[in-house]
Amino acid sequence: MTQNTEAPDGAAPRRVVVGIDTSDNSARAAAWAAREAFGRGLPLHLVYATDLPGPIGMVIEPVGYAQSRRKEAQALLDRVADDLREQQPGLTVTTEVSELAAAQTLVALSEGADFVVTGTRGHGGFTGMLLGSVSLALAAHSHCPAVVVRGEEPAPALNEIVLGIGPAQQAEGPVRFAFASAAALGATIAAVRAWQPASADTGYYHVLDIPQTEAKIGAELTHRLEAVRAQYPDVKVSEHVVRGNPVTVLINASRGSRMLVVGAHRRRNPLSSGTGYVVQGLLPHSPTPVAVVPAG
User: Fold this and answer.
1) Are 290 and 264 in contact (CB under 8 A)?
2) Exposed/middle/buried for 46, CB within 10 Å: 0-12, 13-18, 19+?
3) Inter-residue contact 148 to 289 (CB < 8 Å)
4) Which of 107, 151, 263, 273 allows an S-S link to 174, with CB 3.0 to 4.6 Å?
5) Which fold has domain 158-294?
6) Fold of the CATH domain 12-149
7) Confidence (pTM)
8) Helix, strand or coil, per DSSP, at residue 267
9) Cα–Cα distance between 153 and 155 in angstroms, integer?
10) Alpha-carbon distance 113 to 17, whole Å?
11) Rounded (5°) CA angle 102-112-134
12) Exposure of 279 by Cβ count < 10 A (0-12 exposed, 13-18 middle, 19+ buried)?
C-alpha cells in the first residue's frame, strides 16, 4: 500500500482524525479508523481533549494539574498509536493533545480532515458524554464527514457501503463520499431509499398504487446517482426501494456492512444540535459505523 496524502492547491494534507479517551469504545473506534485510513492510504491523527479551564473564569486547580493532565494524555496517545501501528504495519500515525473540549476539538480539526471518527458510550473525554453532547454536536457541525462508531467490535464486515438517500436529498456530498470510499476500498455500494405511504387526515396510511409509486421512487433514486456513478464506472452498485421507517430500514440494510452513509444539513449556530430525525435515530442504535456527510 502507498500513502497518498498530497492535497491539491496547497490545501492541508489529507488524513483521518479520531478522538481518543480511556474507554473501550474509544479503542474500538480508533481500531476502526486505523483500518479505514490504511485501506485508503491515508495517515491517522489521534487527538485527546483535556478540556482544561481557560484564563477567564478559570477554576483554581492544584499546582501541576494541567501539566499532569497533558502528560497522561500524551502517554495514552503514544500507547494507542503503538498498538495501531502494530495492527496496521505501515500506517502513519500522529498525535495531538488539545486543551479544548471534545466537540470543539473535533469540529476544529474537521476542517483539515477527510473524515473525523468518534466512539460512543465511554467514560470521559470524547466518548463519555451523552451521545447528544459530542457525537450529535460533531454530526451537526463538522466541516467534513463525521463517523460515529457504536457498540461492540463487529465480526468481519461485508466489503459493502450502504448509502441512504432521503426524499429531499439533492446535494451530491453524501453520494460522492460513498462512491469515493467504495472506489478506494474496492467495496460495493447498496443505495437504499426508504419510503412510507402518505398519511391521510384520518390517520390511515394510503397509497392508491404502491407498485407505481415504488417505480417512480426507484427512477428518482437512479437519477440521483447518475452523475457521480458515471465518474466511478468500476464501482458496483445495487439500488433498493424499501417501504418502512427510514431508521429501521437503514439499520437493517446496513447490518454487517462496512459503513452506512447518510447526509445531514450542517448547523453553523454553535447552540444548535439538530441533524434531523433519521440521523438522530441512527446514531444511538446503528451497529454499523454511521458516516454523516454535509448535505449543504
Assistant:
1) no
2) buried
3) yes
4) 263
5) Rossmann fold (3.40.50)
6) Rossmann fold (3.40.50)
7) 0.86
8) coil
9) 7
10) 6
11) 20
12) buried
* pLDDT single digits (tens) 169-200: 678 999 999 999 999 999 999 999 999 886 55
pLDDT for res 267: 60
CB 170 within 8 A of CB 223: no
- Kindly list the strands in the beta sheet with 16-19, ordered across the sheet, starting from the edge strand earlier in the chain: 93-98, 44-49, 16-19, 115-119, 146-149, 290-294, 257-264, 158-164, 188-195, 237-243
Cα of first residue to Cα of last residue in the chain, in angstroms, is 34
Alpha-carbon gap, residue 240 to 222, rounded angstroms = 10
Identify residue 91 by its one-letter amino acid code: L
DSSP sequence for 85-125: HHHSTT--EEEEEESS-HHHHHHHHGGG-SEEEEE-S-SSH
What pLDDT was estimated at residue 171?
81
- What are 200's three cell numbers? 391521510
Which segments of the chain belong to CATH 3.40.50.12370? 158-294
Q: What are the residues facing 188 on neighbouring strands?
A: 160
CA dist., res. 104 & res. 134, Å (int): 9
Alpha helices, DSSP H, located in the chain: 24-40, 65-87, 102-109, 125-128, 135-141, 173-185, 210-231, 246-254, 277-282
Q: What is the pLDDT of residues 226-246, one digit of tens each?
A: 999 999 999 999 999 999 999
The answer to whether 139 touches 148, Cβ cutoff 8 Å, is yes
C-alpha 151/C-alpha 283 separation (Å) is 11
